[in-house]
Amino acid sequence: QVQLVESGGGLVQAGGSLRLSCAASIRTFSSYTMGWFRQAPGKEREFVAAISWSGSMPSYADFVKGRFTVSRDNAKNTVYLQMNSLKPEDTGVYYCTARLLGGTYSQPGEYTIWGQGTQVTVSS
Q1: How far apart are CA 35 and CA 32, in angstroms?
Q2: Which long-range contacts (CB under 8 A, 24 or more apart) does 6-12 make?
Q3: Nearest to residue 25, comparing CAs of 41, 44, 2, 43?
Q4: Residues whose CB falls within 8 Å of the CB of residue 29, separated by 6 or more in sequence, listed in order
Q5: What's the pLDDT tens digit per position in 59-73?
Q6: pLDDT tens digits along 70-112
């Protein structure tokens, strides 16, 4: 059964850092584009970052460029989201997602596998 499990969320002060991890139980993990989305209370789920199956095409939402870095370790079937200079508006549930091959799409409908999410809270 294909499964994505996020970890690393928590409470942090503004300006701080967190690193999210997503462990994937996908046999052909290296063939999957991996993405991160987030959802704040009362808001729609929004794209944060994605990395292609080869790792050569990271893509970011404008509001995280220069602060967040997405990476992957295909040997560990894991994708990471390093979040620096966190702001209160970064608060939300962060979801890991995957799709077989393809590009680093920013629309949630392009992804077929989703994790349960991990809460990130940034205090001011």
Answers
A1: 10
A2: 6/94, 6/95, 6/96, 6/115, 6/116, 6/117, 6/118, 7/118, 8/118, 9/94, 9/118, 9/119, 9/120, 10/119, 10/120, 10/121, 11/121, 11/122, 11/123, 12/86, 12/120, 12/121, 12/122, 12/123
A3: 2
A4: 74, 77
A5: 999 999 999 999 999
A6: 999 999 999 999 999 999 999 999 999 999 988 889 999 999 9
Residue located via tokens 């996908």: 26
Report the DSSP beta bridge partners of residue 47.
37
- Whole-number Cα distances in Å, 101 to 39, 91, 96, 97, 122: 24, 30, 16, 13, 33
To which residue do tokens 């949630």 refer? 108
